[in-house]
Amino acid sequence: MAKKKTSSKEAKPAAPATGRPSALVDTRVIYCGDNLEQLRKLPENCVDLIYIDPPFNSNRNYEVFWGETKEKRSFDDRHASTKAYIEFMRPRCEELHRVLKQTGSFYFHCDWHASHYVKVMLDQIFGENQFINEIIWKRTSAHSDAKQGSKHLGRVHDSIFLYAKTEEYGFTHLYKPYNEEYVKSTYKHTDPETGRRYRLDNLIGPGGASKGNPHYEFLGVTKYWRYSQERMLELYNQGRIIQTNPGRVPQYKRYLDEGKGVPLGTVWDDIFPIQSVSDEGLGYPTQKPLKLLERILEISSNPNDIVLDAFCGCGTALVAAENLGRQWIGIDVSPTACRVMAKRMRDVCGVKEDEKLWRIGRGFVVRDLPWSEKKLRELPPFEFENWAVIALGGRPNKAQVGDMGIDGRIYPVSATPKKTEGELQFMDVWYPIQVKQKDKAGRPDIDSFEAVMMREDRQKGFFVSFDFSSDAMSEIQAFFKKTGKSIIALTVKDILEEQIAYKLA
Predict the structure, then answer these.
(1) pLDDT class for 142, splitting at 50, 70, 90?
(2) What is the DSSP string of 41-65?
(3) How far apart are CA 131 and CA 121, in angstroms?
(4) What is the pLDDT of residues 87-129, one digit of tens each?
(5) Stretch 135-142: mean pLDDT
(6) What is the rounded (10 degree) CA torsion for 257, 260, 266, 271?
(7) Number of domains, the chain
């Protein structure tokens, strides 16, 4: 049976979770890095609730200014096709399924671009019978993608898929307040002494004798009643039963303030998205409202349960967990995002980032922020290449030799799939990445990369090194003037600056 929980109309923040609820896993930790690598370090069956809001497989470039520093970053959904997106997500969802407890619940937040493919993938991993609900979150009432002349309806909602690992998952029913029109039309009466609104309800037992309802006379009326004679007399003495006229069937006074409200369904149209002027907004392009995450946690977790968000972005799920007295684990590949959520945890939740406090269950820590230039210089060349390519959001070459001057590729959102012999393949849209683990890349290095650009007919390429000579930079400019092809020169420091991280502290 599912573990029991108490339903409530409206959530009230719980006391912050304290102590370590599990000897197997550390909580109140933000991990910076590839979530697949981190998830593989976690033991089986250690997390009560998982929520993920991974980058959608969508044609959107995000130019975002982070917090007070106005650090400009570009968030690109670089998955070149739905096939690539599912291939990226599948091993991660398999690991998430592994670490989820037998009583745990899993939420996958997505939009229309890949939701149907995501559902099929999750059915394969969790099992079709473990699908519980598709929640429709109406995130806006209008959308600019349905302008006059467009040939589709406005896309105004996201989908949130809820799965359970077994039938033993926990669940709490929540209730929304009655709307004003319903209250006026249904609770028509007001108690003159207390001012409480009420409606009159039927006291006749449904089914009569066939259902075993008691049969007797009450206030001059003989019926099969809903309650026993003793209970009816008790309610009458409490003023809960009235008879409008002699001989009329008595009725029960059901007060508005005693009702739970309307049971929450799968369409959530009462939680609004983050507005640009909102105090809650951090400038993160896909930031979700805190109320949305708190509702999910109220439904599927208890105080001191462990909540995991493996794509935690600016950390809304972690803030919700902290507010509601849950333990939490966050993972994100972006160092900036990790520091933003750490700052939010300190400023919004009042939790200190402190190793000593964390060890006694009171603070939190951030782990695995990027290495220093010194440590990166010491890496074996192939490991350094992988670090640089992944940091740019690209795909490193699997082979260490025979790369023909290309250490990795970036697939932009403009890349779309084409169908070849029944399989989805990438269109020929990608940008080469060249990485040199040297103090200063010189003109010969740039000349070699220019040959790659010409051979592959690429309009843009990325070159990473610790620094560049003046001749190298001059050659890049001359190459652009001559061919119109752009080489983006990035230093290791440029990449580590994403760690602005520390400036946000």
Answers:
(1) low
(2) TSPSS-EEEEEE-PPPSSS-EEEEE
(3) 12
(4) 889 999 999 999 999 999 999 999 888 899 999 999 999 999 9
(5) 85
(6) 40
(7) 3
Residues 21, 18: Cα–Cα separation, whole Å: 8
CATH of the domain at 402: 3.40.1350.10
Question: pLDDT, tens digit, for every residue of 168-216?
Answer: 999 999 999 998 999 999 999 999 989 999 999 999 998 888 889 999 9
| Residue 74 pLDDT greater than 80, yes or no | no
Overall average pLDDT of the 339-365 stretch: 90
Q: SS3 string of 159-195?
A: EEEEEECCCCCCCCCEEECCCHHHHHHHCCEECCCCC
Pair of tokens at residue 239: 């003023």
For residue 62, the model assigns a pLDDT of 40
Q: Which DSSP state fits 399?
A: -
Q: Which residues contact 243 (CB under 8 A, 6 or more apart)?
A: 219, 249, 250, 251
**Domain end (from 258, 279, 308):** 258
Work out the burial of residue 15: count CB atoms within 10 Å of its CB; fewer than 13 is exposed, 13-18 middle, 19 or more buried.
Answer: exposed
In a domain, 249, yes or no: yes
Question: Do 429 and 362 share a structural domain?
Answer: no
Judged by DSSP in three states, 136 sits in: strand
Lookup: tokens for 490: 């990035």
**Residue 188: which of 180, 179, 198, 177 has the closest Cα?**
198
